[in-house]
Structure formats: C-alpha cells, structure tokens
Write a structure and sequence with these properties.
Helix content: 40-55%
Number of helices: 4
Strand content: under 5%
Largest sheet: 3 strands, antiparallel
Distance between the termini: 141 Å
Number of strands: 3
C-alpha cells in the first residue's frame, strides 16, 4: 500500500513538473510533418502550435501558415503575412516621406528662383531709375546753360531743377509764347535745341 502511494505521488510530481499552461501547449518535437526546425520556443498541444506570439494553430503539410520556418530541414526564415504587411506599410511610409521631401525641395527651389527673379527685376528697375536721373540731370544742365546764355538764368549749372531754374523757364516760356508751366517740356527742349 505504501509503495502504491509513493508511486502515485511520484507520478503526480512528474506530471506537474512537465505541465505547461494550456494556452502554450507542450514543447513540440521536430518532425517532417510539422515543426519549427532549430527553434525550441514553440509548443505543440494536440497538433496545434503556439509560437512567436501567435495563437495555437495547425501546420498543414508541415508548413507554418505564419511562415516563420518552412518544411523539414529549412532553417531560413521566410516572411510571414504580418511581417510582409508591416514591411509594405514601412515602405509606403518611406516612399511618402521621400515624396514629401522631394516636394519640399521643389517648393524651395521655386521660391528661390522667384526671389532671384524679383531681385533681378528690382536691380533692373533701380538701374533704369538711376539712368533716368542721370539723363534728367544732363537735360537740366543743358537747359540751365542755354537759359544762362540767353540771359534768363543767373544761377549755377548743376543739373538740379530748383526754384531758380523753374523761374528762368517761366520767363523764357512767357517771352517766346510757349506753354508756361516752369518745366522742361517738349516745346522748351525743341526751342533750346537740347539733345
């Protein structure tokens, strides 16, 4: 009777020491029908396998539907459906980032080109204004010199259309019956022979 009790106790102890939670199953053996070659982290519970965080599942024809390992003897991992989907998402995100960066670079280039064009236009306008000022100063100087020679202007020939120059123009225009406006108009330029 004692021997039966000791045997029963040993059987229970061995059973409890090798038991694993039902959710994990029992460690599976490497077979040609269903296995994960070279990997001991899976559990076989009644023909169902649990590994790598997946719920218990069958290995039809010795192939894991999640693609962790292939048939017997194949030690090269293959991409699972989940891994492939994740990889596709990562590739799509990377492509979107690259497209966004390319678009940003293109926008920056367009803005830079617009700034360069604006700067060039401003430089042209400034140059034109400076040239117009220089030409106007030359015309004023010629007008002052001509009016001085005719006795209408006694000031300095400096190219500045000041009050004294305008007063001389009014006297000249009145004397010759021209339009009196105190400016160097077309009639005045023609009569004074200013070029």
């Amino acid at each position: 009777m004692k021997l039966h009790k000791i045997a029963a106790a040993l059987f229970i102890a061995v059973t409890l020491s090798t038991a694993v939670p039902a959710s994990l199953g029992t460690p599976f053996a490497v077979t040609a029908e269903a296995h994960h070659h070279g990997w001991s982290g899976g559990y076989n519970h009644g023909g169902y396998y649990s590994h790598h965080g997946y719920d218990a599942h069958l290995h039809p024809n010795g192939m894991c539907p999640y693609g962790v390992y292939g048939n017997y003897g194949n030690t090269v991992p293959t991409a699972s459906a989940d891994a492939a989907a994740l990889y596709a998402q990562q590739q799509a995100a990377l492509l979107a980032q690259q497209q966004q960066a390319a678009l940003y670079a293109q926008q920056q280039q367009v803005e830079l080109l617009a700034q360069q064009q604006q700067a060039a236009l401003l430089a042209q306008q400034q140059q034109a204004a400076l040239l117009a000022q220089q030409q106007m100063a030359t015309i004023v100087m010629q007008t002052q010199a001509a009016l001085k020679q005719l006795g209408f202007y006694a000031g300095e020939v400096n190219g500045v259309l000041d009050m004294a120059t305008q007063q001389a123009l009014i006297l000249f225009q009145t004397s010759y019956g021209l339009t009196v406006d105190g400016s160097i108009n077309a009639q005045t330029i023609t009569l004074l022979n200013i070029r």
